[in-house]
Structures are given as C-alpha cells and as structure tokens.
Amino acid sequence: MLFGEMTDRIINRCKRPDKRETAQDSINNAISYFTLAATFAQDLVEGTVNINPQQYAQSFSISTNFPLFRRIKYLKRTEAKSYLIKADAQKVYDKSGCELLDRWYRAGDNIVFKLAKLSPTLEYGYYAYPDLLVDPDDTHWMLDITPMMIQNKALSEVFFSIGEPQEAGTHQRIAHDFFAAAKGDFEDASTPVTTTA
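RE: above sequence
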C-alpha cells in the first residue's frame, strides 16, 4: 500500500480532511514506533564494507557506511566462519593483559574492531530505522504486510488529537493486538551472533 492510500484511509475513517498532515505524521510515527519495538527481519540490512587489508586494528564510520543505522546484528571477516564478538570498550583485554581478537565495539560514530587475521572486507548485518514517508507514492513494508497495525496506531493518534480519547484507546488496543501477531510472524528470530564478551 502506498503512503497516500494509507493517508486517505485514515482521513476517511476519522472524517476529518483537515487532519491530513496529522494523519501523515501519525503514519510515520506508527512505523517508527513498531520498528523500535521489535527487530523485524525486514529491517535487516546486509552487505560488505571494504577495510584496510593490511591492518588488524581498524575502525570505520557508522554514518558513512550504514544509512539509517539502528543497531548491529553481526560483523564478520568475509572468509571467516565465525562472527566478531561485541565487546565492551573497557574489556578488550583478557585477565592476563592480552588483547582479545575478533572483537568489536562502538565508539561514538565509529565501529572499532581488532581482527585475528587480515581481511579486505567485513560482512555486516544491521537493523535500520525507517525512511520518512513524504511522497504519496512512498511505501514501507509495514504498509504492505501489516496495514491494519499501522492504520489503527495512526488512527489512535489522530483521534487523540481531535479530543476523542475513547476512540483513540480502542484503536491503540487494536494496533497492539496486530503488533503482537506481526512480532510473532516477522521478528528476526535467528540467534544473535554478536554476544557480548
């Protein structure tokens, strides 16, 4: 479903054409809300990033390499079978003082990592924030797969804005029922591979 179609559905349901902008904001708010409430497989972005093939310890910028970055699922050397382990920045050494290898941590806008073997690339998987829908022809996977979840969450916000808290509460409950079903069906259930060391 397109952003413009969802906006029209909300306007038709609340019978307030003057609330078009509120409806549009509410759709974007609903998508963002549900994106943050779960780790949906559809929000996973996977690929490779080029790194220096002659350095073991490196870093790269999140904002440059990972558009709409929310959080890392995994990092691994392209030719490796195992994943890099997420480590606390203060725990990059073992008890004997040796630096731990194949570890990564976040430092501000950077991913810092130390490899056991050299590699020209890293494979990654990260969960992304949704793009802001603006154009009537814009779309998002939730509008196609879980439109009633988004519609009811957005209607809840619109009804609350026009002073109908009871109607808002009803749509809020319906949206959360749809969310429970969507979470069961679409949440990324694969085992996290970036366990903290």
